[in-house]
Amino acid sequence: MQNRSKFIVLLGLVGINIILLTACKDQTNTTKTTSSSKSQLPVDLPRQDILVVDQIFRYSVVENFNLWMPGIPSPTKQGLIMDSLWYIDQETGQQINSLSTASPRYNKDFTQMTVKLRSGVYWSDGVEFTADDLVFTVNNLKSNPGMLWSTELELFVKEVKKVDNYTVIFELKDSNPRFHYQFTIKYNGVWMQPKHIWEDVEDPMTFKFNPPVSLGAYEYADSDPSGYWELFKRRQDWERTTPGILTGKPGPPYIMSVFYGDSGRKAMAITRHELDMVQNVDYEAFQAILKKTPTARSWYKEFPWAYPNEQSARYFGFNLGSETVLSNKDVRWALTLALDIVDLQTEYIGGVARVTAIPHPASPPQMELYHTPLEPWLKELQIEIEEGIFYHPYDDAVPKKIAAWARKQGHSIPSGAEELRLLFGTGWWKHDPEIAERLLLKNGFTRNRNGEWLTPDGELWKIKMIVAPDEVEIYRLAIGAQDQWADFGLKLEIETLQRDPYYNRNLMGEFEAISSWSNASTGDATRDKWQAIFGLHSQFYTPIGKSTATTGSTNTLRVKSKEMDRIIDELDQIHPEDDRVVELGREFMKLWVENMFSIITISFKNFTTVDQYYWTGFPTNENPFVQPLYWFGGGRFTFQNVAPAAGNTPKQ
Amino acid sequence: MNLLKSYFLPRLSQWLITILVGVTVTFILPRLLPTDPVERTLSTLSSLQTMDPRAVESLKEALEDLYGLGGSPFEQYINYWKRLIRGDLGPSMSAFPTPVIEIIGAGLPWTVGLLISTIFISWILGIILGTLAGYLPKNLWCQIMDKIFISIYPIPYYILALILVMSFCYHFQVFPLVGGASGKPEISWSYLSSILWHSFLPATSLIVGSTAFRFIMAKALTSTIIASDYVHYAETAGLSRWRIVLFYVIRNTLLPQATDLGLSIGAIFSGTVITEVVFSYPGIGYSLYMGLLQADFNLILGITVFSIVGIATAALLVDLSYPLLDPRVRYK
Question: Chain A: nearest CA to B323, how far in angstroms?
């Protein structure tokens, strides 16, 4: 009986060992399959004809292309089949004139905008795009409240007139130097509707626009009824579309978006060569991809790999909507100086992002406009730590310190100051717990016997911070702050929330502290800070307990500042190309930093990854000609530049 | 007539009350969530496009109107019942204007197909193997089975599922990574075989886990039954082992097994979120999960109505079928 049991256990162990050994077998030597080999993709097409891209979520709505309705998923497809007047390339910051041939022309008081349209652009059913389509789109959206852009167009447009087939004039109800932003695409914007289709639609709200008449270089081919994938086919007449006209390149015969799920599954798909472009994966999955797939890479070929130029930054924010110890700017400065950004950026983020001290993303064009010109001011900046005693908190040696850490890890890092800034960002605030302590003592804080901080009321000082763990970086930053502030004698309690309740609590102001992104620290790839800060104006101020989403406010931290209102008011009145725009942007950033309304830490980074097994021509750090953010509206130009890799000959 | 009054009518009334209470509670609960569908839509929109803060207030009003969130909660409740009776579950708020019934219709066949088949397979396998293991405890193969199922049972389902994905989608790239089938739905061998191919791993994961559970249950029940006088009597009378197992042992363990089967089938309308996520397999569970996160009141209600009706009906049918399975249960 005993022998039998032993035999069974032994048998089980042998079986498990076989499975594990097989599973651990390194697959890097897998032979390259021939380009005509059959893949396990869910469509019956030659693999070498399809560019497979990461679909960033599973669609609950399929075969509905009415992207003018809220709720219809748009990523990737909006770039493939829709079009609008202008795009802002998120990498270069340059405006791309798409359906319009030039920038909009305003009259002196910004109450009239004239648009010149491009000729020779055709809908996929062979009808030419003209001023009639633009005029119809605006009027159609205006008359259907609930459709996207309807309320904005109703609010601003008095009349839209066709002058000729390629000229349209907008008469505006009030002065608005940024009205063209409605038609300027970063991710989304007013997409054109084919008048010859939509004018016969009885109910534009429920119309599915299926099959869609495309104005992009691709047209809809097929999709999964369960929302896992969509397939688009290159138009025969792609040269009569703006991506074709502007790039002169055809792009892949098919583009397919597939939702694979989490980072681990995306890594598996890349290893199987069933995914060519990925929006983002976590650090660990990216390392697994590099190990298993020699043809894969992200923005940089080597460390720090990740794409660092998406237009936002991370921050630790404090709820300033009610009077607490955190309402005191000295306290916020003390918390800042108790942080060690080099440790945060390296040990918690892996050294793969740029640090930024100001509320703005540190992408190269933005650094040129804001970070670099503000550096002398940052170096001169002083805070009063005790009466009459001032302190320079800025540390411009941060990039060098991060580089030293990276070298220790065995990475090859250049030594030039400018190159280091491009890799790791500008300076940040000194790690100086002693000064932080003096700031707190100045404001009535004390330490107990255990070295823990007590508030001026004698209570043990604890801060509660909300975080969404699936927002990996902000979670890791929060853990870093928890460790570092614990060393300083402050207890940070982290409350983890699923993403939706986390967003909701953020909008409602139901938090004491938050690790987050967006807010004042976003950019638009342009020089204009208006989009990020207009919602901070006190006219939209939303008290705690009411969602900022319903009032137009972006002021989730409930900051109150008359000086900020002055900056925003002036900015609102001038054209984005006015020289004063950048000056006002810098004034805003100085105000934010002086008051330390939030502690900005690092710029956004994405492990936007490509596999060059079947396709090449992706933008990279060596050739940053266009944004790699293919899921944005401007992805239409990214795709167009993708070409077959060596040895891959598309059949079509 | 007496049977109808004393046995069927009370159970039908209970079924009806369960559904009424279930739907009412499900109507109230999402409205207590901190998330609001209009706020969520506005929040999503503001992160995707240029939204002038001055236009937000009017957009909010337009969305409330579109989503049917105007009027008092009581009016909304009455309107909901009116729509439900007409078979209209309303539009999804997170996927507006898509009707909820369309979303359910897209996911439900996958969930039902996968779960019905796996439940039946694991139910039959579990009962047969568990009964054999209970009846023949000294048999080597039964002991091996016993050890295997007892080892498998405590493994959390998602670990088992991940092992299958890692083994057969990554290290041995045998099965597809995503979806329920290849190509458009059609009645053809290639489409049907692709369904079988895509569902193989998710089905295996479900069958292995639930067979283990049913094996243990059947073995435990059998261990009690084989000590019964009628089994000893059958053995003494020289009946064949198969006859004893089939007609004396399995039949007498069927009552709890039938309850398990009925309730498992009733619960399929809630879907299996983990299976869908780990295997990227289509179904209704993920829609319900997203509906909950996005405070999509109509979608939550729609799926839950199916679930409530499914479970209540299954419980009713199981209850009504007891006397058929076991003559000792009377219609009283």
Answer: 42
